[in-house]
Amino acid sequence: MKIVRIAVMTFLFFSCKEAPKKEDIIETSTETEEQVTLSKYPMDLFKVFDAHGGLDNFKKYRTLSFDMPKGDYKENQVIDLYNRMDKITASNYSLGYDGSDVWLLNEGGTYEGKPKFYHNLMFYFYSMPFVFSDEGLNYEEIAPLEVDGVSYPGYKISYNSGVGASPKDEYYLHYDAETFQMKWLGYTVTYYSNEPSDKINWINYGDWEKVNELLLPKEITWYTIENGSIKEPRSTVSFENVKVSETA
Q1: How far apart are CA 239 and CA 116, in angstroms?
Q2: Rounded to an integer, what distance in angstroms lies between the CA atom of residue 231 and that of residue 240?
Q3: What DSSP character marks residue 227?
Q4: Are the CB atoms for 125 and 117 separated by under 8 Å?
Q5: pTM score, two decimals?
Q6: 5 pLDDT band (50/70/90 cuts)?
């Protein structure tokens, strides 16, 4: 009888001692997953994502739509955030990307742009900084951008070969050193030449609005450049009726 009692007590003792090890393994696994996610981006760039609502919140949405006033008419743009198919609709034309081809319906003959270049252009500018979490990108910390006596830290973003329609494009994201909100975007255009360019265009992101949990641009403003320096506002694009949805 004593042997039985000793055996039972021994079993219970070791059972109680083993249980916490399972919790330790689970916590270690979770921590490792978080470390892997964080290691994909520079820490300060991750803070920029967080300042705009966080990557997790952005990635849970499937559809983004917004209107862009263009003089006496508006463009409506709808983007599938998962597969990046898009559709742009105006009163006299529509265009988009169906997953394999870019298409254009120009019944009024009023559209004079280049659909392959334009179909996702404004989506890309609008979805900053979150599009910089896409696959196939490289990040390099660069010298701060000085504008009107204010210093904005930043990163250069480049593409791996074969990524996107213009993999030789380069982007320069600069943010507020205190709030980590995005403030300036520099970019080069290589779509037409397919050659690297040292001409940097600059957009100011100075007006944001809350859309659900996300902080997205209310308007963006291009600036004139003189001898490589940012000078005066040149043109502004506004965004209205912004909606994000978890469904297609």
Answers
A1: 22
A2: 27
A3: T
A4: no
A5: 0.83
A6: very low
